[in-house]
């Protein structure tokens, strides 16, 4: 996939950020995991957070999704200062995180996974029951919106490809009212074709007005779909660039922390 | 959503062959096994086995095992084991006997008290498993010995040296709740049928079968209830999810701890229910009751399609698994075979079921 993709790109700068984190620091005892991270997401954009292993991406995601509380710094949700007590708080505010394990159960059907923990019911008292028909039709419809035609809603998640599973997880988060969708390395374990599908899904989600946080260490995947790019290195953000203002090589250099990568590149021939 | 989407999908559904869809049902193995066993006994056993009295003859032990197996299947789907349920039958029987005989309580108090004690022990099992993170297999193996030992010691203490507590029948026979747990149901119906000559009778006109044993009704009722819970309630989805992947379930908002502890309580409660029925039926309680029933219940659940790793299985499967069991135990007496072949059969059936289930799981999850 090249830099000039056919994806629609959301206008940035027009809307106010849904969530804005400023100068976030997070210390674990003596270890300074985050040493000043600033990041924001606007509705309908895909903001890529790039960083090498150990740069602090995971800690930052967990801070954003309410797992960790920042040691220093401010979080503003829709302009108001906000402090999430738990992941559930963050979820209720509309911040959904799709972690790498996807929170999916292979032996269960797509529909049962889709509504796991949030089953629709009908009837009252003793006749209150899991509305299987509704769960099935909603799942089929939501998956169709994402461009995946399931054979049947009772198809087990284990029979889906990695990319399709990722899409189910994304569709589930969006269906349950995500306004900010944090995707933790959604393409890292996927093949070329499936990566393209997931990137297309991100594009669809963005066009619905959801702010997407795309975490990756793969510059090419980020360049394909991102509207803005922020590089995280050694626990600090090194600034944010808009699409078109920066090249893949520059991003790669920033992620690697400068010089050594540039020398490697001449032997490897291009971006990794 | 537009309706044409659904019809488009339905067309795709029909293209999947019926057999392929059936293959995905967890209870398929148990139904196939039941057909096989039925054919075997039709060929080898005395014709008396498949008369009305013959069928009820093997349904009674099937039902007694089934009450345990259905609960054990739900617990297995939830990802845990309970090896203490066999001993729990003896222990709950002792509690029940002591309530009725020593304390002279009516059944309306004694039965709920017995169930409550069992549920409490089940909850303790669950709490230990969840707190320590140890496999439930080992925690409840300890429970197997502790409860068996307590039943022996307790009964000797209650009776002054005997491991049997008699006199339950005298104390409870006239209780108005007794017909709910012991004896036969539909007696009037069976006498009416006999009077018209529709079922076999003794020379004096009494029907050969006095009615349907109540445990069979409990068995059918519990299988239906468990299936409803598993397939048609949010709690059922939580059970599958908790057994399928604990972390994924918890991250999606499923109250995994509550689900698992409730399942342990239900399983222990099922053992107590069986104890009440057995004690009322026999009129006495014995410290050897329920011996090795935990293994038989788990085998019936596995024959019924439950995976040992959790997250997959069915209550209907456990229902048929239990019937296979009852059929073989009783059926061998209608044939010329040595009854001890039963054990060989049991082991063989278990092995086949596990291999079969493993293949099914790979099919469902698309593993290669």
Q: What are its keywords?
A:
heterodimer; A: 272 residues; alpha/beta; Rossmann fold; six-stranded mixed beta sheet; four-stranded antiparallel beta sheet; 12 strands; globular; disordered N terminus; B: 368 residues; mainly alpha; ABC transporter involved in vitamin B12 uptake, BtuC; two-stranded antiparallel sheet; two-stranded antiparallel ribbon; 17 helices; 4 strands
Structural commentary:
The complex is a heterodimer of chains A (272) and B (368). Chain A has a domain at 19-107 and 176-246: 3-Layer(aba) Sandwich (Rossmann fold). In chain A, helix 5 runs parallel beside helix 6 (192-207). In chain A, the strands form three sheets. Chain A has a six-stranded mixed sheet with strand order 6-9-10-3-11-12, sandwiched between helices. Chain A has a four-stranded antiparallel sheet with strand order 2-1-4-5, with helices on one face. A two-stranded antiparallel sheet of chain A has the order 7-8. Chain A is built from nine helices and twelve strands. Chain A is of the alpha/beta class and 272 residues long. In chain A, a hairpin with a 2-residue loop joins strand 1 (19-28) and strand 2 (31-41). Helix content of chain B is 71%, strand content 2%. Chain B has one domain: Orthogonal Bundle (ABC transporter involved in vitamin B12 uptake, BtuC), CATH 1.10.3470. Chain B has a two-stranded antiparallel sheet. Chain B has a two-stranded antiparallel sheet with strand order 2-3. Chain B is mostly helical and 368 residues long. The chains are: A alpha/beta (272), B mainly alpha (368). The A-B interface holds A 88, 99, 101-108, 112, 115-119, 121, 128-130, 132, 137, 140-141, 144, 149-152, 156, 158-160 and B 1, 5-6, 9, 12-13, 16, 24, 228, 231-234, 236-238, 240-241, 244-245, 247-249, 251-254, 307, 311-312, 361, 364-367.
């Amino acid at each position: 996939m090249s830099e000039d993709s056919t994806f629609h790109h959301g206008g940035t700068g027009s809307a106010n950020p849904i969530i804005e984190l400023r100068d976030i620091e997070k210390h674990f005892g003596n270890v300074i995991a985050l040493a000043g991270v600033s990041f924001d997401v606007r509705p309908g954009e895909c903001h890529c957070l790039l960083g090498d292993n150990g740069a602090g991406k995971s800690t930052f995601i967990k801070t954003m999704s309410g797992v960790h509380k920042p040691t220093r710094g401010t979080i503003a949700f829709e302009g108001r200062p906000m402090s999430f007590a738990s992941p559930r708080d963050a979820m209720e505010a509309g911040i959904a995180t799709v972690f790498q394990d996807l929170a999916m159960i292979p032996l269960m059907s797509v529909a049962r996974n889709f509504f796991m923990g949030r089953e629709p019911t009908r009837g009252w008292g003793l006749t209150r029951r899991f509305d299987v028909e509704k769960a099935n039709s909603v799942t089929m419809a939501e998956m169709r919106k994402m461009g995946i035609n399931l054979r049947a809603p009772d198809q087990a998640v284990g029979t889906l490809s990695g990319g399709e599973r990722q899409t189910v997880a994304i569709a589930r988060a969006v269906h349950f009212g995500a306004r900010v969708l944090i995707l933790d390395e959604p393409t890292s374990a996927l093949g070329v074709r499936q990566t393209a599908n997931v990137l297309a899904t991100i594009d669809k989600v963005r066009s619905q007005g959801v702010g997407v946080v795309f975490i990756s260490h793969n510059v090419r995947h980020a360049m394909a779909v991102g509207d803005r790019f922020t590089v995280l290195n050694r626990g600090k953000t090194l600034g944010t660039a808009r699409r078109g203002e920066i090249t893949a090589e520059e991003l790669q250099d920033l992620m690697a922390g400068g010089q050594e990568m540039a020398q490697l590149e001449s032997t490897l021939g291009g971006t990794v | 959503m537009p309706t044409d989407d659904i019809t488009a999908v339905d067309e795709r559904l029909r293209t999947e062959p019926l057999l392929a869809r059936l293959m995905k049902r967890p209870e398929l193995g148990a139904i196939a096994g039941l057909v096989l066993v039925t054919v075997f006994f039709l060929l080898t056993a005395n014709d008396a086995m498949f008369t009305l009295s013959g069928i009820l003859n093997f349904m009674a032990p099937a039902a007694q095992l089934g009450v345990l197996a259905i609960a054990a299947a739900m617990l297995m789907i939830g990802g845990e084991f309970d090896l203490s349920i066999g001993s729990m039958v003896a222990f709950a029987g002792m509690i029940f006997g002591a309530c009725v005989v020593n304390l002279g309580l009516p059944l309306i108090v004694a039965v709920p008290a017995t169930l409550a004690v069992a549920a409490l022990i089940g909850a303790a099992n669950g709490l230990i498993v969840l707190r320590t993170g140890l496999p439930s297999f080992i925690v409840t193996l300890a429970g197997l010995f502790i409860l068996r030992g307590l039943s022996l010691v307790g009964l000797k203490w209650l009776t002054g040296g005997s491991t049997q507590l008699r006199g339950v029948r005298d104390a409870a026979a006239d209780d108005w709740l007794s017909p709910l747990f012991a004896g036969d149901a539909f007696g009037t119906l069976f006498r009416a049928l006999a009077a018209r000559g529709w079922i076999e009778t003794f020379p004096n006109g009494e029907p050969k079968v006095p009615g349907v044993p109540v445990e069979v009704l409990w068995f059918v009722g519990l299988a239906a209830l468990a299936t409803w819970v598993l397939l048609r309630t949010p709690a059922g989805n939580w059970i599958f999810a908790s057994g399928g992947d604990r972390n994924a379930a918890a991250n999606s908002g499923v109250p995994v701890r509550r689900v698992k502890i409730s399942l342990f309580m239900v399983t222990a409660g099922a053992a107590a229910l069986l104890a009440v029925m057995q004690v009322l039926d026999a009129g006495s309680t014995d410290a050897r009751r329920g011996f090795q029933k935990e293994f038989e219940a788990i085998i019936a659940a596995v024959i019924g399609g439950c995976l040992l790793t959790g997250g997959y299985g069915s209550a209907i499967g456990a229902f048929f698994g239990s019937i296979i069991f009852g059929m073989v135990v009783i059926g061998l007496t209608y044939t010329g075979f040595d009854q001890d072949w039963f054990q060989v059969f049991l082991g063989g059936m278990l092995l086949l079921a596990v291999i079969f289930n493993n293949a099914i799981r790979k099919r469902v999850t698309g593993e290669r």
